[in-house]
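W.,

You were right to be curious about this one. When I first looked at the sequence I had no strong expectations either way, so I just let the prediction run and decided to look at it fresh. Below is the sequence, 293 residues in total, followed by the output.
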Amino acid sequence: MEDALFPDAFPEPLPADGACAWIGLRDALEAFALAETTESARHIKPLHWYVACRLVLEGGFHPDDVIPRPPFQVEGGEKNVLVHDPKSGGTGELTVMGGLKTKKVDVTVCKPGIGPCVAVSLKGTLRATRNLTNRMEEAAGDCTNLHLMYPALVYGFLHVLRANREGPGVDKADVAVLESGEADPTVVRYHDAMARLTAREDVRSAPSKYEAIAVALVGSSGEEVGRVLADYPPATSELRFERFLEDLYRAYDLRFVHAAPALQRKTSRLVWSADSPVRDDARLEGFAFRCDG
């Protein structure tokens, strides 16, 4: 992936081959908000990388188990010293066998001998909010397909929408935020529908529900560029961005660790050593590093 695709969005050149890079949330969302096209998923790939890195840094998953592989190495034996290694970043998506068809999943955690444990699908809408109805149907279908084959899979769906504000030069069909500051009714209806598809608690629960869903409006102009708008969804919503990965970690621990004590040596999330060099890296700002000190 050429660095020119994301002008001025990143603090250092991106890998030319599109490999997973360690970037922060603001950088990933700026690339999304300023994108002119969805061609080759250029608008959403940086967010894939951000999620993959969070799964390692704060989730405690070994980078070898995450696809695309984040740019980190684990050293020091049982001390679990985490080192940033840009050359180790990987590309691609895991093709997962579903109950009805195979599915390429954007970000996954796949444990050797166990299979896919965590999956995250990401969608980005730049315009045409009228098409959100189609996203509802796709989301429910994808979730059902994978849960039919892997009932224990902890599956998350993250959808970012560019917060196009009503006003001159903005097509009515692209509006996500009204002049009043309220979310467009189309966005509200989408949120309410997706809220019915989240918080799957048990492997025997409805396969069409995700373990976690987040819907986020991303600022696209002025000082808002690359920032998740705080006013919507409501503070009480289960679809708030800030709780998304925490909900996935919680579901994973309950399902793959506490409910399966015989597998805990394989499934327990790692705690990184306080001696890890990444702890002193400026890029760690904004990440909740999971460490022992």
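Here's what jumped out at me. Confidence is low (pLDDT under 50) at residues 1-11. And, maybe more interesting for your project: The two ends are 37 Å apart (CA to CA).

Coffee later to discuss?

I.
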